[in-house]
Amino acid sequence: MQAIQVTDKVYWVGAIDWNIRDFHGYSTNRGTTYNAYLILSDKPTLIDTVKKEFYPEMMARIASVIDPKKIEIIISNHSEMDHSGALPEAVAAIEPKEIYCSDMGLKDLSAQLHPKFPMKVVKTGDKIDIGGDTISFVEARMLHWPDSMFSYLEKENILFTNDVFGMHYATSRLFDDENEERLWLYEAEKYYANIVLPYSDIVLRFLDTVQKMGLSPKMIAPDHGFIWRKDPSKIVNLYAKWAAQAPKNKALVVYDTMWGSTQKMAQYIAEGLRLGGTEVKLLSMHSCHRSDVATELLDSSGLIIGSPVLNSGIFPSMADVLCYLKGLKKKHLVGGAFGSYGWNPGPVHALANTLTELGVEAAAPVVSSKFVPDDSVAQACKALGLAVSQKIAEKLK
Ligand code: FEO
User: Fold this and answer.
1) Can you tell me which atom of ligand 1 is nearest the CA of 166?
2) Active-site annotation, residues
3) Domain of 270?
4) In a shared domain, residues 98 and 52
5) CA 50 to ligand 1 center in whole angstroms
6) Tens digits of per-residue pLDDT, 181-227?
7) CA gap 46, 153 in Å, rounded
């Protein structure tokens, strides 16, 4: 396992997780990477580590360019275990002189790893001399954890951003200009939609703050995916666009079905949306993954949810996706709800409350069908689709 050279003094010493397909409930169809970086300054410095089981891979890559014992400084930009899991073993093997993290990082790492090594807290504006270069720190609270922090290598002009500006994308090609946009763009968007979306207001404020600080890095080096060297502004601009959540004439109909009735309703609603001029996507939770629904929702203005009734509740697959979407706090949504039942319409009508919890403005009352939808239900479904389409059009004016 070899390190990959980034600049004269900076090396990538991370790990590639080619076959991970579930990252705490997020479908990672193209795997991921855990990026760690080694700076061969006078005081050799390691930025972040990797997931615990990839510790041997990281150490082998480090050993390909330097005796790990020569590392003097370790920086932990983020305490989630995909970056800190290997920290205790790394510290035991390397015995660094100093370990740095944010204030919240110290609290998190203490609670997770119960470390027996001392760590020093740094905050925004603090600088450390690493011998021949300087690292300054920028706290990035809630992007996406309270402890998140950026490290800026001043002379090399590289910003190490941990999760931010990354994506779950396993690649042996380390730089943006070596990877095809048609392959990575969806993964970058998916990452934003599933990890960063709830913190969009913070993203916008943070981008503004970083701009005012005058930072204009020649490279952005995140902890997942590849390094942005050809055009770091590309991912920054994408973040600004995604964070703004500008309305688009697009709606999702997210549903599941038991015996086909709710699916028929979904199709009638989609027809209403189409007739209203709105792009529509039907996503059945029988076959779609929650994290792909979240990705589709990122640029949607409409969300219509539908479920049959099972055991006096909504369908389990719908409960799953609605719980997930609630946490992502997508803004500016209009929509509605629908569903079929046999003898208890209550759970379908309770979807009105779910819309409220999701922050969705209902464009029309809930539509329900006792068993198979008849013509009047079909018309009510089309009317629901049209009403959502009209509300979206009003927002786009
Ligand atoms: Fe890649 Fe928040 O961990």
Assistant:
1) 1
2) 24, 78, 80, 82, 144, 163, 191, 224
3) 251-391
4) yes
5) 10
6) 999 999 999 999 999 999 999 999 999 988 888 888 999 999 999 99
7) 12
